[in-house]
Amino acid sequence: MKFIGKYGEHLVLSQLLKLDIEAYLAIKSNQEDYDITVVLESSRVLRIQVKTTDLYNQNTNNSISGVEKRYDFLVLVILDKNTEHLFIMSREEALALKGSSVKFSCSFKQSGVSKIKPELEKYRDNWLTLTGA
């Protein structure tokens, strides 16, 4: 997919709006560390970083960079044929999962087939973490 990053950002934006969460695409000129701005009812603002990858790309473990940027929550979008998997976690959780690795790895190969790392499952569709933050 040519515009995979933009696809992921708009997918996350539409999910947030569907959940009645006020959200806007960030202005890249002065909000370069995140992609979406969320405004909660309490007038609290959250910065969302979206990272999108294709599970079946040529990368062995779908490593992504940029998780060390300044944001509040990471939404990881993994495209799997005709399905989208969304994982929502805090910046601290993303950094802990990344560990000492240079990049954040979100998959592995088993018998030549790409699989999503099991440690991501607890973050699947974890939208409530945003409103309960």
UniProtKB/TrEMBL annotation:
Q: Which InterPro entries match?
A: tRNA_endonuc-like_dom_sf
Give the GO molecular function terms: nucleic acid binding
Could you tell me what this protein is called?
PD(D/E)XK endonuclease domain-containing protein
